[in-house]
Design a protein that fits this description.
The structure is a homodimer of 357-residue chains. The first copy, chain A, has 357 residues and is of the alpha/beta class. The first copy, chain A, has two domains: 163 residues, Isopropylmalate Dehydrogenase (3-Layer(aba) Sandwich), CATH 3.40.718; 161 residues, Isopropylmalate Dehydrogenase (3-Layer(aba) Sandwich). Chain A contains twelve helices and eleven strands. In chain A, helix 5 runs parallel beside helix 6 and helix 7 runs antiparallel to helix 12. The termini of chain A are far apart.
């Protein structure tokens, strides 16, 4: 972070209650973030959840010796993984997730980090924190591994019925997020579809392609990309709707687990493999690390007036700490203001670009 | 195949010109299919392509000693992988692909097997062979590996803008195809979406879910499934639109190649891995076999009045032979007549099921 940022400092509201590993892991993540300097000297942390419990955990993890940097916001309930998304704002108004979002809305926090129920976070985040001017729905942006380095895919589940304008918004938001999180100066943006000829993929893709071309040099659009290209080096930002993106990341996760299990069971069943398998273990561990979805920490809900970071429900302390880091990086790059400006530009292009017959 | 089938025999039109490995591999596949008894004693084969060339290749591969079982249909041109789909019926009327489809339409062949350009095959197949009564568009059905055995996914690219009725058609067609190709008596059908609660995934998914439930015991519908479930044991037939399905299978293929390259490069770079890597080689080969998309041979274009099998463009002789086998199995199970009856039933259900408000 720059000096200016460090002087100002950011306030991180950490929803400690919704993850699979519970508040203990969230507090451990906070301790790790302090220890590794992810949370800078001027930043402050608000632990949101059952306060007595959190104070005990903070003592265990030795972050009580930072009274001027760690605060608490009591929330007696938690959103469960199977709570219906739309019901959360009514039935779980005093949950840690909703309390954290309210702090963001009220300007008492600069970023919310939550491991909770994705659909509830999208719904409650959209209603509480509100979309940026000119945006209708947020997009969930995942960082994914590829042969060399990483790429951004969005939307991976916030807006399953995205219209061409929404896909254009995803492109500009994802482009800025790739600058902040991957450090790519001029990210290449690809539109995911079923064929790279123009006219393939239906009316929605055609209109989006037209809009992206009309953006000119305001975005580094490299054209339509296919599934084959995703793990290659065709582009740095893969733009898709929340239906396709969600199915895709979950299927990839399912496949990765299957490959690991296949390798694991074969190694176990065959004595020759056991001997060589021991030597191969670091390789398998590397592969697992490379492909482990949790490793890429947080996925921001882009396009809201405040920054909400979703960490995988099964995140361990490293995963949650990584979500905190990604959130602070986005804040440090002034991502919110830049995204707001880019959305306004994109909407001007939409208005100025008549649909082709 | 049953005795009755063997007595009658089927006529296979093999488009020999469109694959990446050329006509030589197609003729080698034909020889393999005869040798392994895939093509039964009463079946006949028509090699479609440049006749002189094919006769030479047939001599090389020693299938000229079957004059009463191997025939030729001359076609002077071939559809290229980058030919625009819709132009093929005009500019490539004398191509092996179009000639083979014309034989199917004219009742001179019972099945077409082609390694050619998928989009051209879908477009030309739909126009030449025509959809079954009550269907509007065909669906491409892929056989995919999972932890144990295989499952069917459709549509993987024929109809990117599928409506709820089309998705219902995919469900009934895929269910019958799973019986024929996987030998599952009562295949479990899942609808791919972004969440398993009712009401998730948008209006199109909701209406499809409603129609599938209204089918009652005419189909073994197990409900919505997510990406996580695809490689598990939740269902045998994964129903989706041609956009999502196409992106999904291509992304999976890209990921599988990435994993293999990662494993390969790690093994090569580290001397410890080289020693153990040699012992691990059979494991990697098994894994490669398990995940190799070409292995699952053909994907039929379901819902046309004749049977068109698409084999992967890069198919080797085993892949093409497998496509021939899958085609003959479908014919042997009287799939066409049963699919036509199932579509009529499905359309009755659509008409009798008013949309929910």
């Amino acid at each position: 972070m720059s000096e200016a940022t460090a002087t100002k400092g950011y306030r991180i509201a950490l929803d400690c209650m919704g993850g699979d590993l519970g508040p203990s892991e969230a507090v451990a993540a906070a301790a790790l973030a302090f220890k590794e300097g992810v949370i800078g000297p001027a930043d402050t942390l608000i632990l949101v959840g059952h306060e007595d419990n959190l104070r005990l955990l903070a003592r265990e993890h030795r972050i009580l010796n930072k009274p001027e940097r760690v605060f608490y916001r009591h929330a007696p309930t938690a959103v469960a993984m199977d709570d219906a998304a739309m019901a959360v704002l009514k039935s779980k108004r005093d949950s840690s997730m909703v309390k954290a979002l309210e702090m963001l809305k009220a300007g008492e926090a600069d970023v919310v980090v939550s491991t909770g129920n994705t659909k509830a976070l999208v719904a409650a985040g959209t209603i509480k924190v509100r979309p940026m001017e000119g945006a209708e729905r947020p997009a969930l942006a995942a960082i994914m591994p590829r042969r060399e380095g990483h790429f951004i895919m969005l939307d991976v589940g916030a807006n399953p019925e995205a219209k061409p304008e929404h896909l254009l918004h995803n492109a500009v938001l994802g482009s800025i997020y790739a600058q902040c999180s991957l450090g790519i100066a001029n990210p290449r943006v690809g539109l995911l579809t079923v064929g790279t000829e123009e006219g393939k993929g239906g009316a929605r893709i055609n209109r989006t392609h037209q809009l992206l071309k009309a953006m000119g040099d305001r975005i580094n659009y490299v054209g339509p990309v296919e599934g084959y290209d995703v793990f290659g080096d065709a582009c740095d930002v893969v733009v898709t709707d929340g239906f396709t993106g969600n199915v895709l990341v979950k299927t990839i996760e399912g496949l990765v687990y299957m490959v690991r299990d296949l390798v694991g069971s074969k190694v176990k069943r065959n004595p020759v493999y056991i001997a060589s398998g021991v030597a191969m273990f670091p390789l398998l561990r590397d592969l697992k690390g490379k492909l482990k979805p949790e490793r890429y920490g947080g996925a921001p809900l882009l396009g809201l007036t405040g920054l909400v970071m979703k960490a995988h429900g099964s995140s361990n302390r490293q995963g949650i700490c990584s979500a905190i880091r990604l959130g602070l990086e986005a804040l440090g790059h002034d991502a919110g203001r830049r995204m707001q400006a880019a959305l306004a530009e994109a909407n001007q292009v939409v208005a100025a670009t008549p649909e082709e017959a």
